[in-house]
Specification:
about 375 residues, alpha+beta, Jelly Rolls, 2 domains, ten-stranded antiparallel β-sheet, six-stranded antiparallel β-sheet, about 20% helix
């Protein structure tokens, strides 16, 4: 088995669908994106793409292995991507990455489609995770809006405090479940397809209804629940605070007051072109100049675009169009909805199309 697995590390790996239960409804846009007949909303509103992270759903909703991506193409039986990475870490992730992060891919990629507004929550910082959770990763994240639902007139996200909110006052809002006030003290930022929002760990936030996105995150499922009741689940107090004393957990919440100008300058990221090849372009949507945690790029291929893994892994999602990916050992057809894990060992490769094909390229934490 190991010999056949090692051979797989030399080529891009086709990822199987990997929907995950969450406590909110959505997912119809993911169904539509994937070409599923009769798309519907459900309690599986997220697809975890190339994930090596266990989903930590609360209570009776916990399922061992949920969230872990699977490879089946070229194998007699499916194997978890995590198993392949742990067996051949340098081939999969690159030597420098392994020296820095070990066999952890240092990235979690999701397709997320929210039919309803998500509850207000936040995530721990790296420093907090090291001190209290015995983990080197917190959960900084970023949102890359692909589409919004046409029936939602004014799609938005909530992020950061717009006015001074003391810790005692905020805790009182939470205890009273004063959702209107919790929303009022945050920035309500309109979003549309193409927008990029950067969410620092510790910053309170919520995704509004009707937004379909690619989400990049540090590789954990840690959430600090600030609004405890949602349509599909009511959180017990011990489930809200990462298993810690509430005051300790809430100490990581970023109470900085952002002006609207600071939100637009620091948290709403402006894409720019990195390179061109003929009519093809690679656009940086969010780079390591913003965060060392991950990077997101859009590949707009017309004709041909050459690329190189440069000794690190990536995850590719085909957003639109048709084409093929040509590598040293063959080629892979590309069409909307295809998801690939690109091992570091692949090296040089090309994207080819007779018309156009657009891909989202997800890069792990900077090594």
């Amino acid at each position: 088995m190991n010999a056949s697995l090692k051979q797989l590390t030399l080529a891009p790996m086709m990822l199987e669908p990997n929907r995950v239960w969450r406590f909110y409804t959505g997912g119809k846009m993911i169904d539509r994106f994937k070409g599923v007949p009769n798309p519907v909303d459900s309690l599986y509103p997220e697809e975890w793409v190339g994930s090596c992270v266990q989903a930590t759903n609360p209570g009776e909703h916990f399922r061992l292995g949920e969230g872990l991506a699977v490879i089946s193409a070229g194998l007699s039986e499916p194997v978890a991507l995590k198993t392949i990475i742990e067996t051949f870490p340098e081939e999969m992730l690159g030597a420098q990455h392994v020296r820095t992060y070990g066999a952890n891919p240092a990235l979690l990629v999701k397709l997320l489609d929210a039919a309803v507004r998500l509850i207000i929550h936040a995530h721990p910082t790296k420093a907090f995770a090291r001190q209290h959770l015995n983990d080197c990763f917190g959960k900084t994240e970023a949102w890359f809006v692909l589409e919004t639902r046409p029936e939602i007139a004014d799609p938005y996200v909530l992020i950061a405090f717009r006015e001074e909110v003391s810790r005692s006052r905020y805790k009182e809002m939470m205890l009273k479940n004063d959702i209107d006030e919790m929303m009022r003290v945050m920035h309500k930022v309109p979003v549309k397809a193409g927008d990029v929002v950067y969410v620092r760990a510790g910053v309170p936030h919520a995704i509004g209804a009707g937004i379909f996105m690619v989400e990049l995150q540090e590789p954990t499922d840690y959430s600090i629940i600030l609004e405890q009741t949602c349509p599909a689940y009511t959180f017990k107090q011990e489930e809200c605070y990462l298993g810690l004393d509430p005051d300790i957990t809430l100490s990581v919440i970023d109470h900085r007051v952002y002006t609207l100008e600071e939100v637009q300058r620091e948290l709403v990221i402006k894409p720019h072109v990195l390179r061109k090849e003929g009519e093809s372009v690679e656009v940086q949507l969010l780079g390591y100049d913003t965060t060392e945690c991950f990077a997101g790029r859009r590949l707009e291929v017309k004709g041909k675009l050459s690329d190189d893994t440069a000794g690190r892994s990536s995850i590719l999602i085909v957003l639109d169009g048709k084409g093929k990916l040509v590598h040293n050992f063959g080629e892979i057809p590309l069409e909307r909805g295809v998801e690939l894990f690109m091992p570091a060992a692949v090296g040089r490769h090309e994207f080819l199309t007779n018309s156009q094909v657009t891909l989202f390229k997800c890069l792990p934490a900077q090594a």
